[in-house]
User: Which sequence fits this backbone?
């Protein structure tokens, strides 16, 4: 169970767009690192250092927050995902889709500054880019269920 036409842009709109774009790239970077960890079985610190050495990757602050947050709360995050899989087991979910959902569920549970809808939309975008078309719909369905569960939970409090 989970806990929880062209129009000129104003400076504020430009800042929001830059932040959105920056977070999107940081989510992608977090996806790469967390996906790699599934196969490497190394600590995230080692994987980050390897990424810096091998790919000259620059790991941003938000990427580090995401990967450490997912790593530290993996049990709760996976439990939340599993409780929202309809007739599925976590072991049947593609590693790509699972990694993407872990990032989104982390944001949904632990990041009050990110609207749930944004986390879901970003996850679906990642799934559409890195997984199969069916995975995008699957990720959307599971995360929509997580969102409803969180709404019900917050209504009880």
Assistant:
């Amino acid at each position: 169970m989970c806990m929880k036409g062209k129009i000129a842009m104003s400076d504020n709109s430009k800042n929001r767009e830059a932040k959105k774009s920056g977070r999107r790239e940081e989510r992608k970077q977090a996806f790469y690192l967390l996906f790699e960890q599934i196969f490497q079985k190394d600590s995230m610190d080692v994987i980050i250092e390897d990424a810096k050495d091998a790919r000259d990757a620059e790991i941003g602050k938000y990427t580090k927050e995401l990967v450490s947050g997912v790593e530290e709360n993996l049990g709760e995050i996976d439990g939340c995902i599993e409780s929202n899989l309809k007739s599925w087991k976590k072991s049947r979910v593609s590693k790509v889709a699972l990694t993407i959902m872990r990032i989104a569920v982390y944001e949904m549970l632990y990041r009050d500054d990110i609207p749930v809808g944004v986390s879901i939309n970003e996850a679906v975008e990642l799934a559409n880019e890195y997984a199969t078309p069916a995975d995008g719909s699957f990720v959307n369905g599971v995360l929509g269920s997580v969102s409803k569960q969180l709404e019900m939970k917050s209504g009880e409090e």
Notes: Residues 5-18 have pLDDT under 50 and may be disordered. The chain has seven helices and no strands. Residues 11-40 form the longest helix (30 residues). Residues 48 and 88 are 32 Å apart (CA to CA).
